[in-house]
Automatic annotation (TrEMBL):
InterPro entries: Ala_racemase/Decarboxylase_C (IPR009006), DAP_deCOOHase_LysA (IPR002986), De-COase2_C (IPR022643), De-COase2_CS (IPR022657), De-COase2_N (IPR022644), Orn/DAP/Arg_de-COase (IPR000183), PLP-binding_barrel (IPR029066). The active site is at 401 (proton donor). It comes from Klenkia soli. This is Diaminopimelate decarboxylase. Its EC number is 4.1.1.20.
Amino acid sequence: MRAHPAGPLHGNITPPSAAGAPPVSLGDLDGQVWPRGAARVDGELHLAGRSVTDLVREHGTPLFVLDEADFRGRAADFREGFAGADVHYASKAFLCGQVARWVAEDDLHLDVCSGNELSVALAAGFPAERIALHGNNKSLVELALAVDAGVGHVVLDSFDEIDRLVPLAAARVAAGGAPVAVLVRTTVGIEAHTHEFIATAHEDQKFGFSLATGDALTAAVRVIREPALDLAGLHSHIGSQIFDTQGFEAAAHRVVGLMAQVEQATGVVLGQLNLGGGFGIAYLADDDPITPADVAARMRHVVASECAALGLPVPRLAVEPGRAIAGPGTVTLYEIGTIKPVRLGSSGAPGTPAVRNYVSVDGGMSDNIRTALYDAAYTCVLANRVSDAPPALCRVVGKHCESGDVLVRDLWLPSDVVPGDLLAVAATGAYCWSMASNYNYLLKPPVVAVRDGVSATIVRRQTLSDVFALDAVLSSSAEVLS
Ligand SMILES: Cc1ncc(COP(=O)(O)O)c(C=O)c1O
Ligand SMILES: N[C@@H](CCCC[NH3+])C(=O)O
C-alpha cells in the first residue's frame, strides 16, 4: 500500500471517551450495526453479495447502498411482531418509488407527512386506503389531494386543520362519498429520552393536541360531532431513536385514558390506537435496540390492562416505524480525498504531540446532516481492504465549507489509510438521503439496491443539469452538462 506523504497517521493520542479504546480488530462488522448482508470477502466489504469496489466502479461515490433483503426483512419483523396490528412504514425516513412498491407488496401501511410524499406513494401505485397523512401544517391543497385520493386516515394536528378539512369532507359526502376517517394526534406530555430536536411528546413543541390542557378531548368531541368526519381513533408519537419501552408504555397508558374520557363525553368507543414510531437502532456496537416482538408485547400488555381497568374494548393497534426499517440496511460509501494530521498542542503522552487526524471524504453534511444537527454517532470502516496497521484516532469530515461538517466525530481507523481508499459509514438508511441538500452545490448521491449479488439503481445520482434546470440564468446552458 502506497504510504501517505504525511507519514502514517498518529495512533497514540489520548482517546476522547466517545471513541473508547481502539478495538481489537479494526474493520470488524458488528452484526447489529451493519446490514444483514454485509461481510468481508478477502478483506473487502461486500454488501448483499456485491463488492464495494465493484459498486463504486459502476456508480461512483458518494453512494448509498441499500441491502434490499435487510430493509424487507425488518419490515417483515414488524409485520410479524405486530401481527393483528397495522404497521405503517414512516416514509420520511426514506421514500422513493421502489421503496413504496416494496412496502405495498410487503403488506405494510404508509405514513406520509406532506402532499409530495403522498404524491410519490400514489405515483408508485401505493394503495391510498393504506396511507395515513400526517403534518402539523397541512395546506388546503394537501388535504384536498388526500381526500380525493381516498387515503385511509388523515391524522389531525390542529383546530385550524379541522376547519380546513371539514368543507372538503362535506363536499365528498354531498357527492355520495364516505366521511373522511381521521385520528386525533395527542401530545401526551412524555419526556422521551432522546435528542431535543427529535422528541415530540413533551408539551412545548409544535405537534398534536395537548392532553393536559384538554385540547385533545375538545378536538375529539368536535370531530365526533362533524358528520363529514369519522373519528377512527387516537394517535401518539413520542419521538425518535428511543431505546427503552417505558415512554411508549406511559404514552399508551395516557392515550387509553383519553379514549375513556371520549367515551364518557360522547358515548363513542374508539376502535384504533396508533402509538407512532421512534424505535431506536444500533448506530454503534454498544447500542442495544429492542426487537419489534418485544415492543409489541409490551404495548399490547399495557393497552390490554388499561382497557380492562377502564372497561373499554381493546382497540386495534398501529405503529409507525421509519428508522427501524430503513436505517440499518443502508451504508454510504465515500472515497477519501485528503488526510490532515492536525496538532492540538502537547496534551498527549510525554513527548507525543496530540494530533487529530482529519480524514476528508467526497460528501458530507449534504448527504448526512445528522451528525451536525443532532450530534448523532456513526461508525465507519475502511471498506476496500483490511489493514493490520496500528489504529489511529480519526475524525471523518466532509468537503463542505463548514467546520461542523463532520460525519464521524471520533473513531479508530488503520493508520495506513490513504487518499483513494473507500470508507463505508454504517446505518445511513434513515434520514440521510431524505434530508440531503445541495449545499455548496454538491449533488445528491444515488441509491443503489442490492439483492443476492444483483444491484439496481433505485434513485439515480443528481446531475448538474438537474440543478441548472432550476436556475433562470443557467437553465439555458443545462443541455451541455452531463
Ligand atoms: C408521527 C411520526 N410517526 C413516525 C415517525 C417515525 O419515527 P422513526 O423513524 O423514529 O421510527 C415520526 C418521526 O419521528 C413521526 O413524527
Ligand atoms: N430526522 C430525525 C428524525 C425525525 C423524525 C420525524 N419526526 C433524525 O434524523 O433522527
